[in-house]
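ok, trying the design again with the full structure, not the truncated one.
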């Protein structure tokens, strides 16, 4: 594989769940291995950006989702399931770990990595003898972010460069390709594996995510509702997987879960997509669970995606680890009710996207007994039973209720935040996030809120939604090559929100791609002034200064970029190329070597190293690294040509000619 996904992949910890996870067997539940017979297989299908109210089984009569509707009819459909965070990576982390973002440190779509010692559904099932495989459809779930732990196979395989993190949403594969890979794995396993060994399969479909571009016949059938067309296509792909299970007579021995990770704003509250607000338009998700032996039905309980992991374990009669913040839903699925002594479920939600990316306030919410409180610079209170669309804010009419719910929210955060995150002032956030926010210059204030470096309160996202949408449109323009249009929108956004880090960074990227390098340099420098630890801006500043001919400044910038982000193999490679131009050959060799050490599948770095070795008259060394380059990338003609030169210098004429035939003069 030629992507960075192999860089951070660790060896699977076979004994982790047995020795370190601290599993507690629940009373009355037999752990796996104590029961006779084969354990249930587990199939988890997550569908990105899927609103519950856009499925037939949830009441949408204009869309055709026959496969998910049939699954809902044969299993338990949860009417009131919610994500704790409307962003793909942290939402999936909540599903896999049974913990809220403050329990894992995963709050955002980038800049996070799940600690490898974290107990996940995959690590636990792997430790119980399951074969495990995951097939994901978007780079936001790339293995570098840590969800690959515990999987024998984690198929991400995205071929992308280290542009900017905002581009991750564009790097995806259609659901049919993902399901093709999953079915291949299932078929090969079914033919070759020990049938007594159960499997855990996770398939992630990204198609409903913006931009909406469904294939035919869905593009025509849903021409006026392209979002629904993407959902219908995703339903068909989930159906292929479920049909295979049925054909192989595995349906009756499989625990199946289908969940959305978050919804989509679709213009409600001024939000077109998701991640910026935490209204239920982006929090309410479908959740369908089918467990053999559990009578189908509709479950009305309020539940969270953090409940998925403990529910699966309970359904498998595997003990739930200590520290899991979710709860098993098996009792709810069997039509039971919580003990009268148990408090009603309290659902937590958050978004730190406005804070981490725009220096606006974060948002957090609690939902309990039909009431929802949103903690913000201007807090909000809604009665969801009377006002499910969250249109009428009751904060002014019911201040005592708001104060009570805010106290419950802070108590929940304090309870579910690791103890190390609680300082003398009881800053209610986890240590990883707190360190990141401090590095960005934020000041912690009372109640877990933050202020800018001067202590000024941060803007309420409600007052910045138009700027955010303008920025999002500009980002889309830039990603699709409409740089002038992007720059105009960014200029308009800058008029409302000056000194914005993402605005200046996006301006810099637009100018860089337009080859207006002086303007790009100025904007990258502004971005770095706003955040001196911004690694990608520093890297691109170096590339810009190379184009401007300022080699010394470029070398300093690339060196700084590597210091800030030691995984940036492109920075090491570009440093090597720059040092060659400066006739600093030995330093260039060291830089190219570093690029290959960071990314052992980086063919260009091996080829460059081979060329330098040829220049240094070291043909044996050149042959070794050039052989690696063509092994990684068999169609790398320049590497074949230079390998021929190395073989020729070594007196291997026949080998040299074969390589010359495969290559060409550069």
């Amino acid at each position: 594989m030629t992507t960075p996904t192999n860089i951070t992949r660790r060896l699977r910890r076979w004994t982790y769940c047995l020795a370190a996870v601290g599993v507690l067997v629940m009373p009355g539940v037999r752990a796996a291995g104590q029961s006779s017979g084969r354990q249930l297989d587990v199939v988890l299908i997550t569908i990105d950006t899927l609103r519950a109210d856009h499925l037939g089984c949830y009441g949408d009569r204009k869309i055709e989702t026959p496969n998910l509707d049939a699954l809902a009819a044969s299993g338990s459909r949860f009417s009131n399931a919610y994500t704790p965070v409307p962003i793909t990576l942290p939402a999936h982390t909540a599903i896999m770990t049974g913990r809220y973002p403050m329990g894992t440190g995963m709050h955002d779509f980038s800049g996070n990595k799940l600690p490898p010692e974290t107990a996940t559904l995959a690590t636990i099932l792997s430790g119980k003898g399951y074969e495990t495989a995951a097939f994901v459809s978007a780079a936001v779930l790339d293995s570098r972010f840590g969800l690959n732990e515990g999987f024998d196979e984690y198929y991400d395989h995205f071929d992308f460069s280290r542009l900017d993190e905002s581009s991750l949403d564009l790097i995806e594969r259609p659901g049919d390709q993902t399901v093709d890979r999953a079915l291949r794995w299932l078929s090969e396993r079914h033919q070759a594996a020990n049938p007594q060994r159960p499997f855990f399969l996770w398939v992630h479909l990204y198609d409903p995510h913006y931009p909406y571009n469904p294939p035919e016949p869905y593009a025509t059938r849903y021409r006026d509702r392209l979002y629904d067309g993407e959902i219908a296509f995703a339903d068909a792909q989930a159906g292929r997987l479920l049909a295979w299970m049925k054909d192989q007579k595995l349906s009756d021995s499989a625990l199946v879960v289908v969940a959305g990770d978050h919804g989509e704003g679709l213009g409600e509250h001024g939000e077109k997509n998701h991640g910026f607000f935490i209204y239920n338009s982006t929090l309410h998700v479908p959740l369908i669970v089918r467990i053999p032996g559990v009578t189908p039905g509709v479950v009305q309980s309020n539940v969270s995606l953090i409940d998925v992991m403990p529910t699966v374990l309970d359904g498998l009669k595997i003990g739930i680890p200590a520290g899991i913040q979710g709860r098993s839903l098996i009792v709810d699925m069997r039509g039971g009710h919580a003990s009268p002594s148990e408090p009603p479920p309290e659902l937590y939600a958050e978004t730190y996207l406005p804070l981490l990316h725009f220096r606006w306030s974060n948002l957090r919410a609690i939902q309990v007994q039909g009431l929802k409180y949103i903690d913000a610079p201007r807090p909000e209170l809604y009665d969801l039973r009377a006002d499910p669309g969250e249109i009428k804010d009751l904060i002014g009419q019911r201040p005592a209720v708001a104060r009570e719910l805010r106290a419950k929210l802070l108590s929940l955060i304090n309870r579910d935040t690791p103890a190390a995150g609680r300082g003398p002032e009881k800053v209610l956030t986890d240590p990883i996030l707190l360190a990141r926010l401090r590095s960005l210059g934020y000041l912690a204030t009372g109640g877990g809120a933050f202020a800018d470096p001067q202590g000024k309160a941060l803007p309420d996202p409600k007052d910045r939604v138009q700027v955010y949408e303008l920025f999002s449109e500009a980002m889309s323009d830039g990603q699709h090559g409409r740089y002038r249009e992007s720059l105009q929108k960014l200029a308009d956004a800058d008029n409302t929100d000056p000194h914005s880090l993402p605005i200046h960074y996006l301006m810099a990227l637009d100018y860089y791609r337009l080859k207006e390098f002086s303007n790009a340099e100025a904007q990258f420098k502004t971005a770095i002034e706003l955040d001196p630890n911004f690694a990608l801006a520093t890297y691109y500043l170096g590339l810009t200064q190379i184009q401007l001919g300022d080699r010394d400044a470029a070398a300093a910038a690339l060196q700084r970029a590597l210091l800030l982000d030691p995984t940036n193999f492109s920075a090491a490679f570009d440093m090597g190329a720059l040092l060659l131009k400066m006739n600093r050959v030995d330093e260039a060799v060291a830089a190219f070597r570093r690029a290959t050490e960071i990314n052992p599948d980086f063919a260009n770095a091996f080829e460059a190293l081979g060329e330098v070795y040829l220049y240094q008259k070291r043909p044996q060394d050149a042959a070794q690294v050039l052989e690696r380059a063509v092994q990684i990338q068999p169609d790398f003609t320049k590497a074949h040509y230079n390998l021929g030169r190395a073989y020729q210098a070594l007196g291997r004429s026949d080998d040299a000619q074969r390589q010359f035939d495969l290559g060409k003069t550069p």
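Keeping the full-length input from now on. The domain at 566-666 is CATH 1.25.40.10 (Serine Threonine Protein Phosphatase 5, Tetratricopeptide repeat).
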